[in-house]
Amino acid sequence: MVCAAGLFAGLSVCLSPWNACFGLVVAGLCGRHRSAFFAIVALIVGVLLAPELPTPVVVRGGVYQGLVEVTSAVTDTRSGTTATVRGRDGRYRALLPPGFVAGPGDVLNLRAEIVPARPGSPFGRPERAMLRPVGRIEVLSRASPHWAWGTTARRSFTGFIERHGDPVVVGVVQALCFNATAEVGDQLWTDLRRSGTVHIVSASGLHVVIIAVWTAVLLAVLPVPRWAQLLLLGALLVVYAGAAGFRPPIVRSVVMVMVALSAYLFQREKDGLSALGVAALATLLWSPEAVVDPGLQLSFVTVGGLMLFGPVERTEAGASLGARVVGAGKTLILTSLIASVAASPLVALYFGEVSVVSPLANLLVIPVLLPVVVGSLVAWGLAGVSLPLAVGLYKVLVEPLAGWILAAVEFTGRLPFATVATPAPSTFWLILFYGSAILLWQHRVRGPHERRPLTDW
Fold first, then answer.
1. What's the pLDDT tens digit per position in 268-296?
2. Element of type H or E holding 70
3. CA 253, CA 383: separation in Å to the nearest integer?
4. Are 196 and 224 in contact (CB under 8 A)?
5. Planar angle of CA 229, 251, 289, nearest 5 degrees
6. Are the C-beta atoms of residues 379 and 390 closer than 8 Å to each other?
7. Is the pLDDT of residue 205 over 70?
């Protein structure tokens, strides 16, 4: 974690030179000279690898003719399929034909109309100009077949939901399971943002844990050794990450889950902070420019806050069902509150407002997210065996719970006091807030009847 914090501070000097101070704060807080040394080394490495801020291709229109390299997973939208590509003079956002399959590393040859960039993005960063292809797109090379597998799986799932699901909740279910947000309307986006629940339609840690846990349970019945089960699980999670867009938050989640589950092979206990540190180092070294991604920043800050300050469940022997339910409820409330507080400075920075109903909204939504995701995926898998059974499971279990999520988001998001407008905090205040949080943290030894809740992952 010390190395990850130093690397993050060093890479983020591209946003503000003052961000390096956070790495110095971390080094100063280290109780051992060895830890401080590694924090400084990671800070220096981050400064050397600091990326340039993404800039738009300044054009007034025209035609692009030639090769482009795809640098992101494709995203299905209402108007087609989009992906970020790197051309000879910068990065563009390409609007590809509906159903087009591509992934990072693929090389395309195309002729396209250049649509000028918008003045700015919702995150305060410049937008890229759009390429609108004219005629046939030639695929010169494919980097990896698993992008196609993931995209095919996502489109198969969305097709099943669209054919047999209620149009009212179809967009919510698609977004919950595969981050497919093409059917999420502007009003729902507003409700999600105001209620502080926009994370549920962005495949992230909770989604990966749901899939990983249930897949691990199924693999456990196979007569194969644990290391083989982990290999199969890792391969499945990579495909799922590709299907969900392979965004930095989901990369973080996959790495954390695999590191945590692999502890068993070394006769060690799972450690969330170690897994988070490894995930941060792997993500940022593999893609240094991800440091400016708001999703990655919010993901790491939120999970880090939960690891450091999250509640610990006490499982007492002989506790009644009612006591267990009350305890789980308290844990969920505290978890939601801590996550909201940890993310609030960055939310204020990027959105100019902070949701005050987020703990309530998440308390209503999170408990039903598991059956919705698992039920949807099981129904989709059963469609090839028994379509009536698959549709029945979806109609009886998934749609009512998805309707509950939609109603809860609309109710909390449309309350007049749902959000509070806030000025964008400066880098100084961000360093002060998160530095003070580290100072307030106290090490504690977990007892034999205590465990971290599942939501921490």
1. 877 888 888 888 888 888 878 778 877 77
2. strand 63-70
3. 28
4. no
5. 150
6. yes
7. no
Q: What is the pLDDT of residues 292-351, one digit of tens each?
A: 877 778 878 888 888 888 776 655 556 677 777 777 777 777 877 888 888 888 888 887
The secondary element (H helix, E strand) that includes residue 90 is strand 90-96
Q: What six digits make up the tokens of 283?
A: 């993500």
- 3-state class of 141 per DSSP? strand
Residue 441's CB: how many other CB atoms inside 10 A? 12
What residue type is assigned to position 217 of the chain?
V
Sign (positive or negative) of CA dihedral 36, 42, 45, 46:
negative
CA-nearest of 289, 303, 4 to 125 is 289
- Domains of the chain, each with CATH number or no CATH: 2-49 (no CATH), 63-143 (2.40.50.140), 151-456 (no CATH)
Rounded CA-CA distance 406/365 in Å is 9
Q: What angle do CA 269, 236, 404 make, to 5 degrees?
A: 90
Give the closest residue to 222 by CA, choosing from 233, 211, 236.
233
Length of the chain: 457
Non-local (6+) Cβ contacts of 385 within 8 A are none
SS3 6: helix
Separation in Å, CA 44 to CA 9, 37, 51, 323, 438:
9, 11, 14, 50, 21
CA distance 369 to 214: 14
Q: How many helices (H) and strands (E) does the chain have?
A: 16, 11
Reference 251, options 195, 190, 207; nearest CA is: 207
- From the CB of residue 302, how many other CB atoms can be counted at a distance below 10 Å? 21
- Whole-model pTM above 0.85? no
Going by DSSP bridges, is the β-strand pair 130-133/90-96 parallel, antiparallel, or unpaired? parallel
* Residue 173 contacts residue 402 (beta carbons within 8 Å): yes
Phi, psi of 66 (to 5 degrees): 145, -160
* One-character DSSP codes across 156-214: HHHHHHHHHS-HHHHHHHHHHHH---TT--HHHHHHHHHHT-GGGGS--HHHHHHHHHH
Instruction: Using CA atoms of 91, 241, 149, 132 in order, give the dihedral in degrees to the nearest 10.
Output: -20
* C-alpha closest to that of 377 among 253, 240, 205: 240
